[in-house]
Amino acid sequence: MKRDALAGIRVIDFTTTIAGPHCTRLLADLGAEVVKIESPEGDMMRTRPPIRNGASHMFGYLNAGKHSLVLDLKRPSAIAAVKRMAARADIVVENFRPGVMKRLGLDYPSLRRLKPDLIYCAISGYGQTGPSAELPAYAPMIHAASGYEMAHLAYQPGRERPDNCGVFFADFNSGAYAFGAIMTALYQRQASGIGQMIDVSMCETMLGTLMGEVMRAQVPYDLPSRPMFGPVRTRDGYVMPAVASEKTFQGLCRAAGHPEWIEDPRFARYADRRNHWGAYVDELEQWSGQLSSEQVMAQFEAHGVPASRYRTVAELMSDPQLAHREALQPVTDAGGTVKVMAPPFRMSEAETRVRPFCQSLGEQSEGVLRGFGFSEAEIADLRTKGAAG
Q1: Which fold has domain 232-309?
Q2: Number of Cα atoms under 13 Å in the Cβ half of residue 320
Q3: The domain 10-210+321-384: what is its CATH number?
Q4: Residue range 247-270, pLDDT digits in tens
Q5: CA 151, CA 141: separation in Å to the nearest integer?
Q6: Are 27 and 9 in contact (CB under 8 A)?
Q7: Model confidence over 27-78: pLDDT tens digits?
């Protein structure tokens, strides 16, 4: 029987919006006890559609499996309660603007004095120190600031305006890096017995995805007339062939019924092919444009060309492969049940599954405090002072 890899690990989660909650949901998926501390107003994601019966399923996607504790951090008694909890926790994760936790007296140096083996992870736009550290940061502006958007634009011939942003790469990638760093720190703690501070920069996360652009900024070289990974038009849509080797290039030529292209001086060598890729695709589409995507894909498959047609998210969600892996798993909140993505990895000896609940604001405040050793009288006192919800 599989076990929860992080059973017994306690996490205090101060995060909001996407990057931090994605990190801490991965911790919850592996069995950690994650206590999400929210203001009396709650995480802003609780107001994001789709909303049913007052519950945001977007919030549920990011916060499944966590316990909601309402504390008003403007109250000294709430700060004292957090410090008491931190002394019994393993991990703290926050994604406030740098300086906020220090002003609250909840930064790493303050909490480390209470718990020397505490692992403290801070996710921010540009890192905790430096001239840009205190700038506000959200994923769309980090996409712009990191060079990602201009890099993407360079692969769209004829366009000058950057894309509108609707997919939050910076948030999800930064949350995943934070999760990985926390796992590393837990492993190191086993040997050293001490915790540490983890400082995750969203801007550096995005720059780290731009391998070619980082190289080109230092050693300039020309881009091909058209990117070598791009859509190929069919009669009823587009497909994406991945021409990543000589073998796949030759298969592509044969699939199109033009084996002579293999020896064509414009395409025979990689360097020449790269420089003439636009011409190659133009000729390729004279063939593919007469066929359906299904017919083109059949030819690609027959000749060993890795490729995919372009699918919508809804189409992918119906793919039998996802059903086989149980990639979409149910989460129930006050609005009902929806499916969310499980972690994209599986482990032979550990559970990697979404915990099937999302709590309403403050739903477990009393139970959480009790679990951290607060008496009924102490909980009542916090409520009387307006510190706990």
Answers
A1: formyl-coa transferase, domain 3 (3.30.1540)
A2: 0
A3: 3.40.50.10540
A4: 999 999 999 999 999 999 999 999
A5: 14
A6: yes
A7: 999 999 999 999 999 999 999 999 999 999 999 999 999 999 999 999 999 9
